[in-house]
Here is the input.
Amino acid sequence: MTATSSASTATPTVAWLELILLAAAQLMLILDVTVVNVALPDMVRDLSAPVTESGWPVVAYGVPFGGLLLLGGRLADAWGARRVLILGLVLFLIGSLLAGYSTSMPALLAARAGQGVGAALLSPAALASITLRFDGDSRRKALAVWAALGGAGSALGVILGGLITVSIGWRWIFFINVPVGALVTALLPLIPAPPRPEASNRRSLPLIPSQLLRRPGMRGGVFAMFIATGLIVGAFFLASFALQSGLGWTSLSTGLAFLPVALATLAGAHLASHLLGHLGSRPVVAMAFVLAAGGFGTAMLSGLPLVLIVGLTAAAAGLGAGFVAASVTALSTIPAEQAGSGSGLLSMAHELGGAAAVGLLSVSAIAASPNWGFAALAAAAIGAAVLAIWLVPNARPPADGRRFMH
Here is the structure.
């Protein structure tokens, strides 16, 4: 049977207004993955923590965020995306306030973990809302906007981290979430919630429905999202280290250096949203990883800052396209009753991909040279391009108004 179309409950203007609000909330979550990177030295100094703990604020946020996303998606399916979304947003804002007022490293880590729990509820519920709200080609465009936030938000996080740390202090990295989140919390209830799918099998669904994993589009999309996020977040980590520690740049100059990287991510995402309808997802994902490999190969010459930034910009353009292709491939045809679980699975791949890359690079490549790290990323991108030909189905998103079949 065909699920009820969301078009009957909201006009296109209202639907896109909801997307703007949800995008603002999601952008906060993505920014908080990388926004602390350039501020870590100041945090460690002000909190009188040892340098060996400098990476823990990133881990304390990323682990609960990525680890609980499937639960967040399942709760969105069972309780309704809007309820879970608001709950996650409130928890995230409380964690942000506590992080800003932290006076010790343990307090900061606890607050960051609270942010991560809130983010794990908010992100899949927001993505499920978008999946349920939009139809056909408008859904593809909405998912493209959402996916672009993943890559561009990571780059913008480094930029804002540098600007805020130098100007008003690192604590405002967290305080700035509060007015944005409060505005979304106030406005979102004014918009009618998207229609919920039929309740016949909602309570009996497992955390990861087996039929969801049997879908080639979901498997291929999760693979592409995990690799693309690992590559881009790992590259930002390496570049921040190379520019600040290797070349002596300030946090502000390091943040500003990522501006062309953020713009390239958006450009790649925009291009991919058009290419998918003509070429299909498989060639777009493969080309995205090949371009990323070329960019990382260029960035290996990181003794020259301009060459490093040019290489990162090229890689970001490719990975921006990869984010969109991964999202559309995974979510374009999932059943309505699995929108939350599918969104949680894809979001988990996004968060755990970045955490895995930073963890591996921090204990291996950084100890020797960032150049080795970029070489490892280039090799991984080439391998991913080859695997994409096998794992990613050559699907084209439907351009008509058909919704879910279940």
